[in-house]
Amino acid sequence: MKGEAMMFFRPIMVALTIPILSYLAAPALGEPGPAVIDLQSLSDEFATYASPDMARFAINKAIPSGTGLDKAQALLKQAGAYCRDDRKTGRPECGALIPVIGGDGSIQPVRWNFDFIAKSGHIVTIDVNLS
User: Fold this and answer.
1) Can you list the alpha helix ranges (DSSP code H) found in 26-118?
2) pLDDT digit of tens for each residue in the chain (131 aa)?
């Protein structure tokens, strides 16, 4: 019965997590500026539910289309990512390695790669890859 209950409730938990993450990634009412990005919480969610879509949604909500590349990089650095310009393309690239505690108590890293899709120095979207 326990396994059946988890299979029933897992889609519900995932569906509720997206609005919760949206709320956490959104700035407080009346507060100016972009949201604070919490890569640790997003990594924990990814490790639990293995849903990269939630992470992509939260990152693109926190760094919306039209944000300048410099500002996007600064927000990701503030969240614990490293950023540099790719030697071959000259495009900025960012990534992070965030440790999470696995179900067996071991520490496992979640690797983040952020690929900026930009036009005229401003973000169109950010492609987020997790592993």
Assistant:
1) 39-49, 52-62, 69-78
2) 555 554 554 555 545 454 454 444 444 444 445 567 889 988 888 887 777 888 889 999 999 999 999 999 999 999 999 998 878 877 788 999 999 987 788 898 999 999 998 899 999 999 999 88
Element (H, E) at 92: strand 92-101
8 Å CB contact between 110 and 100: yes
What is the residue whose two structure tokens read 């440790």? Answer: 99
How far apart CA 108 and CA 106 sit, in angstroms, is 6
Give the 3-state secondary structure of residue 65. coil
Residue 105: CB atoms within 10 Å: 6
**Which residue, 86, 82, 87, is CA-closest to 111?**
82
